[in-house]
Amino acid sequence: MYKDLKGKVVVITGASKGLGRAMAVRFGQEQAKVVINYRSSEEEGLEVLKEVQEAGGEGIIVRADVAKEDDVKNLVRTAVDHFGTLDIMINNAGMENPSPSHELSLEDWNRVININLTGTFLGSREAIKYFVENDIKGNVINMSSVHEMIPWPLFVHYAASKGGIKLMTETLALEYAPKGIRVNNIGPGAINTPINAEKFADPDKRADVESMIPLGYIGHPEEIAAVAAWLASSEASYVTGITLFADGGMTKYPEFQAGRG
Ligand code: NAI
Fold this sequence. Notes:
Blueprint: E1 9-12, H1 18-29, E2 33-38, H2 42-55, E3 58-63, H3 69-83, E4 88-91, H4 106-133, E5 139-143, H5 156-176, E6 182-188, H6 197-201, H7 203-210, H8 221-232, E7 243-246
Parallel strand pairs: 1-2, 1-4, 2-3, 4-5, 5-6, 6-7
The protein binds 1,4-dihydronicotinamide adenine dinucleotide.
């Protein structure tokens, strides 16, 4: 637990399931004020709100599609109107949609780029605008991936979006460091969330993924939430512009593990 997170206002996009949900609950345990963004299922949003409250936090749910500028503006405005300020913005919402690259439609390309990359930009921009105008040394955390550095055939739009997030975060960190605003990425490896449910339900596919993870297991959402809590806390006060990979070693070329090469 990080004492300084108590009472902090945190917006988490895509918080109705997966990593967003785990982060919402973790910030609830930290007794933060959690703004739970959902896109379509109010019911799921309310379930997460209950978990946040049971964990010891306060919260509200706000519907927003992160790819829509007005929705993101409204999300940040609602957080500030309800809780009086904003301290931490976590741009987590994302999607993937595999396709051979030569068959990928422009529509599918745009959908992934709009949600993963443009949505992360809009959330970052609205939060930073509020921090600058109100002289707040706020905190932005973007959800990248190991695929900001590992190429991923069939996921060209996803990899491009995460590669874009890498340099966007580094640029924003540099631009706003003089104002004390920190901007960082989390780079998860393979984590057990609904985005991977179908793949991990197949024992062969699961074993194949596990073979690429030096620590030997698929990560738990709570292990990513723990990274988010640390990055948001004052314990990470000197950390900005990084991607903190939480990937069980996946980015460390596991095929070389046995001394091959
Ligand atoms: P998930 O599919 O379980 O959850 C994604 C969440 O984003 C859902 O709540 C969904 O409703 C929301 N969302 C999607 N489009 C949205 C939109 N337009 N507006 C608002 N919300 C929207 O996926 P998971 O695993 O929780 O992923 C969260 C983030 O972590 C994503 O950015 C993903 O790329 C990233 N990530 C996940 C990894 C994993 O292994 N689970 C690995 C690396 C990165």
